Amino acid sequence: MTRYFVKLAYNGSRYHGWQSQHNAHSIQAELNEKLSAMLGSPINIIGCGRTDTGVHASTFYAHFEAEQLPHKEADFVFKLNRFLPADIVIYDVYQVADDMHARFSAKSRTYRYYINPIKDPFAEFSSYYYPAPLDVELMNQAARIILEYEDFTSFSKLHTQTATNLCEVTEAAWHKTKRRLIFSITANRFLRNMVRAVVGTLLEVGKGKLEVEDVRKVIESKDRSKAGFSVPAHGLYLEDVSY
């Protein structure tokens, strides 16, 4: 069997996240179905992570195994894209070493959260409309505190089956463009709902409802109820994965 990596992107609006599950439509299930049909045998594609319901990915990697592709790689990509729905796109398919793993070989992942301070009907489902005045400098001061910690239990969805809540965060920062406010965060791994909870907490700082040093207290409490609200999924994108 030959192992192939797939580079893809998707709009997660119609899907219950990446992972296949009973009675819910997922990106993984969609790809398994189309790849199995094209290759003539059951395929189980493995992703680089498990994005939640409604979350998007502008860069995502996955791998699958097959005897061989029925077409040249470029032709296979073209035919697969014609087979897939419009909200999933394949950028590349290429052979890799047998020990390359989309999830476990990844060294880091970068998520970005997009906020629209001005109402925009064309960005309604691709960013979070949040018109409240925000102090971005204070939010960046609070974001830098996150880099000092590894245990992010306070930002994790409750009752998950995760073995550890430790993550190595190497970037956490806000920046503004002409139309949007963007939060970028990079880590070796992320907990379920972690980025959305981090963003919600930092917004509380930006609104003046939390002090910058309160973020330290939130993290050290290891109590999800002490953190801010979970921002909507449609503003969140997995944007980069490094190997």
Total helices: the number is 5
In helices, the fraction of residues equals 10-25%
Low-confidence stretches: none
Q: Order of SSEs, N→C?
A: EHEEHEEEHEEHHE
Rg calculated over all Cα atoms: 19 Å
SSE blueprint:
Blueprint: E1 2-10, H1 27-39, E2 46-47, E3 56-66, H2 73-83, E4 88-96, E5 108-116, E6 128-129, H3 136-146, E7 169-176, E8 181-187, H4 194-207, H5 214-221, E9 236-242
Parallel strand pairs: 3-9, 5-6
Antiparallel strand pairs: 1-3, 1-4, 2-3, 5-8, 5-9, 7-8
Helix pairs in contact: 3-4
What do you see in this structure?
By secondary structure, the protein is an alpha+beta fold. The protein folds into two domains: 2-96, Alpha-Beta Plaits; 108-242, Pseudouridine synthase I, catalytic domain, C-terminal subdomain (Alpha-Beta Plaits, 2-Layer Sandwich), CATH 3.30.70. It has helices at residues 27-39, 73-83, 136-146, 194-207, 214-221; strands spanning 2-10, 46-47, 56-66, 88-96, 108-116, 128-129, 169-176, 181-187, 236-242. Strands 1, 2, 3, 4, 5, 6, 7, 8 and 9 form a nine-stranded mixed β-sheet that branches. Strand 2 (46-47) and strand 3 (56-66) form a beta hairpin.
